[in-house]
Specification:
Layout (H helix, E strand, L loop, with lengths): L12 H5 L8 H5 L7 H13 L3 H5 L6 E2 L4 E3 L3 E3 L2 E3 L9 E3 L2 H13 L23 H15 L13 H14 L4 H8 L4 H8 L3 H14 L8
Antiparallel strand pairs: 1-2, 2-5, 3-4
Helix pairs in contact: 3-5, 3-7, 3-10, 8-9
């Protein structure tokens, strides 16, 4: 097992819809995510630490990851069984990658049957690596059961819960840990492309620090070189 996560339990119907990650009581929730395979754990960590949209994460190929620069280059999306150009023009850009996150991705690459530069990072074994895994099926079969065991959502919950919830969780976590709004907008690429571009050149160091806070909160060692 590559690791565990620490999502906090919902306290109301509203928080169930957008589950929040906080720094408190993380350890008590971690063991319940042992049901995740290394692939799904890496997916959860990637979504949780970067705020990638599901279509962006599932659209990654290994050569999109720049290990030397410590960044993930978003070049395409994958949604509903086909390749897309992403949510919008501004969403296809570079995303900072902390060394600890890079190590987790490298660990998954070593385990994956599809580790060539041109392979999908989260390739479908059923389809012999020709396409990525289904985001909805991976969430239904792994993420939701793990979230139920962790107390994040109640058993039998009929509402929507999937990879995108981790994106909302990251924004909430950052806000609770004194990361200011412009930095959050830059990390999540919510702002207009012209506004986001203002932060790309000088916020990277700040983004790494912000990402490290999340990784440390779920007991991922961020001291890696």
């Amino acid at each position: 097992m590559a690791g565990t996560t620490g999502l906090e339990p919902a306290t109301s119907a509203v928080t169930v819809k957008r589950q929040l990650v906080t720094a408190s009581n993380q350890g008590a929730r971690m063991a319940h995510f042992s049901t995740l395979t290394q692939l799904e754990w890496t997916l959860a960590l990637l979504h949780g630490a970067t705020g990638l949209r599901p279509e962006e994460a599932f659209g990654l190929k290994w050569d999109d990851i720049d290990w030397l620069k410590g960044q993930i280059n978003l070049r395409r999306g994958w949604s509903k069984g086909k390749e897309t150009s992403g949510k919008n023009e501004g969403s296809m850009t570079e995303v900072v990658m902390h060394p600890a996150l890079g190590q987790a991705l490298l660990a998954w690459r070593c385990e994956s049957c599809y580790s060539r530069d041109t392979d999908w990072v989260f390739a479908s074994r059923k389809r012999k690596g020709k396409i990525p895994r289904s985001a909805s099926i991976a969430a239904q079969d792994y993420l939701r059961p793990a979230a139920v065991k962790a107390g994040v959502i109640p058993d039998g919950y009929k509402g929507r819960f999937g990879w995108h919830n981790l994106r909302h969780s990251l924004a909430t976590f950052f806000a609770a840990n004194e990361v200011n709004l412009p930095e959050i907008q830059s990390i999540l690429r919510h702002a207009k492309p012209s506004t986001t571009a203002l932060y790309l050149h000088w916020v990277n160091a700040v983004q790494l620090t912000a990402q490290a806070k999340f990784l440390e909160a779920i007991n991922i060692n961020t001291a890696a070189e």
